[in-house]
Amino acid sequence: MGGTFDPVHHGHLVAASEAAARLDLDEVVFVPTGRPWLKHHKTVTSSEHRYLMTVIATASNPQFTVSRVDVDRPGVTYTVDTLRELRLERPDADLYFITGADAIEQILTWKDADKLWDMAHFVAVTRPGHHLSTEGLPADGVTMLEVPALAISSSDCRRRAGAGLPVWYLVPDGVVQYIAKHGLYRGLSDE
Ligand code: ATP
Ligand code: MG
């Protein structure tokens, strides 16, 4: 599951857990982006903070791991490169790439979109406020999956933290504490 995870929240975790159960996955690898190409105009928290928050959020689940492939690759992150590296690390794995309804809608605009379908199977999960449509995408390349609806976004968590509002119960406890400890999102100007 790729994402900016700025910060990781319970919407991500529920989607990953549901995909793992329903698709009988052995492992869900969370892959925080290095520099997300779609968010180049926005201020994104340093990749080390985002990586560590993802580690904290997933630490208690034996099925969840976090990969540094995107954080450690210099330059802008493209999913085609992510999948290439994950494949090299796991030559025999069946790879599934988990995305939310909003992300799958943009996938045709991603770099080398036509190559992606052969590199992994895509899973598009429902997300409140977004219409899940896989129109125009190869029918055998994408599985639609309804997951428990959590209307949580990282943008909203950042805004709340910036405004001094609580993010308790939107993100895992350890992530609330990490945000406070490092003063993340403080004085955030609106995006
Ligand atoms: P931002 O608001 O900064 O874009 P985000 O909440 O969308 O953050 P991302 O890191 O952009 O989080 O998302 C990573 C992946 O998780 C994307 O595929 C996104 O669609 C999916 N996702 C995020 N939040 C949810 C949610 N509440 N339910 C289901 N999928 C989600
Ligand atoms: Mg997003």
Automatic annotation (TrEMBL):
Keywords: ATP-binding, NAD, Nucleotide-binding, Nucleotidyltransferase, Pyridine nucleotide biosynthesis, Transferase. Pathway: Cofactor biosynthesis; NAD(+) biosynthesis; deamido-NAD(+) from nicotinate D-ribonucleotide: step 1/1. The keyword Transferase applies. GO terms for molecular function: nucleotidyltransferase activity. Residues 1-160 form the Cytidyltransferase-like domain. Its EC number is 2.7.7.18. InterPro entries: Cyt_trans-like, NadD/NMNAT, Rossmann-like_a/b/a_fold. Catalyzes the reversible adenylation of nicotinate mononucleotide (NaMN) to nicotinic acid adenine dinucleotide (NaAD). This is Probable nicotinate-nucleotide adenylyltransferase. It comes from Myceligenerans crystallogenes. The gene is nadD.
